[in-house]
Amino acid sequence: MPLPAYVILKPEKEASIERRHPWVFSGAIQSRHGRPKTGDRVAVRTATGRWMGWGHYTKDQSIAVRLLEFEVDEPSLGFWDGRLEQAIALRKRLGLFHGEATNSCRLVHGEGDGLPGLIVDWYAGVAVMQLHTLGMLAERTAIVDALVAALGTELTAIYDKSANVLARHHNVNHADGTLYGALPDQVLAKEHGCAFEVDVVHGQKTGFFLDQRDNRAWVGAFSRGKRVLNVFSYTGGFSISALAGGAEVVHSLDSSARALEVGDRNVALNFNDANHRSIEADALDYLKSHSADYDVVVLDPPAFAKGAHSKDAAVHAYRRLNAMTLKGMPSDSLLFTFSCSQAVDESLFQRTVLGAAVQAGRSVQVLKRLHQPADHPVAGGHPEGFYLKGLLLRVL
Ligand code: SAH
To answer: Which residue out of 107, 274, 334, 340 is catalytically annotated?
Structure first.
């Protein structure tokens, strides 16, 4: 029996779904049946009567349906248990779930794990979830039950950290809070053998940026004996790697005093007398006059493009930031530069950064292309999922 609400696609609009793209745009919909409201489950049918899948409906936004299953007209039995077990099995296989060196990872990465709208991060027993759609919010109890069943005794707490995203995307009032167990006084995550305090309740996103794990290791590998500047440092992820890699001195720069305080505590957690300083400043202001003082610079800004509409402005901002930094850097220095804006794809980012080098009058070599790690998978039908890209440049 199909779901009570469904949409019918315009003729021949099923091609992208056949390629397993999980988004149905409102422009592809011919008609709506059963009066679906934002947050409802809907089935999706072709003009010729074939069921293409079911998903979560959003009214008045360009993505009208986010598909959770293909080729069926209602959720299959054990859907949530199955999807979550599959997601957790991947992280266990990657050695990120309860490893000696790393015990924290992204457990559910939205579309990449066949669950558009759901993010779950795992910090050594504490699961922090972000529900990005009202559809996922409506499924919250099922998600919690399935997480509890799949995570078993390794689970300490489930914390819902959706208030900010739900207010931003859907204009709804929602309270963050603990849904299972109790949050420990201090949430400690381990990455590459280093400890991090994770500010689950007050921090940005779910409290820590797990997506830079692999790239932090590269920064560590190039830091021995170097003067390292970590710009947009947040709670010091790259700074700790640089110190662990034997940097001579590390400076962490951020505009958030609160993030820098956590970063200072993270340095103290891992090292007795590290040569580290936190600088509360605006990135461009500082870089203008100080990029000449460092052998290694990391630029990991927040997403400059929040959507396709702000792509041009974002490209301009990346060019300016990178040109300003490259201009002063000493010869034979290294720049790790990143973008987490989905709307700016890898080739556009690369052209922008290499263009910035020309603008700054510097010759550079590309030593490496950098990406998100394997616990942030990309579904085959959803190339938009490649969101984090970076370059390691040597400045000649
Ligand atoms: N590199 C970090 C994550 C960076 S998140 C990690 O590995 O954990 C982006 C950071 O940029 C946030 O901490 C935010 O406070 C900071 N930020 C945003 N705008 C800024 C600006 N103009 N100058 C300095 N920091 C800024």
So the answer is: 340
Domain coverage including residue 28: 5-70
* Count of domains observed in the chain: 3
User: Within its chain, how far is the Cα of 103 from the centroid?
Assistant: 18
- Cα 10 to ligand 1 centroid, rounded to whole Å: 43
Do 59 and 119 sit in the same domain of this protein? Answer: no
Nearest Cα neighbor of 26 from 69, 63, 76, 73 is 63
The per-residue pLDDT for range 172-224, each reduced to its tens digit, is: 999 999 999 999 999 999 999 999 999 999 999 999 999 999 999 999 999 99
Question: What spatial distance separates the first Cα and last Cα of the chain, rounded to whole Å?
Answer: 66
CB 300 less than 6 A from any atom of ligand 1: yes
Q: How confident is the model at residue 308 (pLDDT cuts 50, 70, 90)?
A: confident
Mutation pick for ligand 1 pocket among 254, 261, 298, 300 (CB with most ligand atoms within 8 Å): 254
In a domain, 131, yes or no: yes
Whether 340 is catalytic is yes
Asked if residue 2 has pLDDT above 80, the reply is no
Cβ-based burial of 186 (10 A; exposed 0-12, middle 13-18, buried ≥19): exposed
For 16-45, write each residue's pLDDT tens digit.
Answer: 999 999 999 999 999 999 999 999 999 999
Residue 395: strand pairing partners: 333, 364
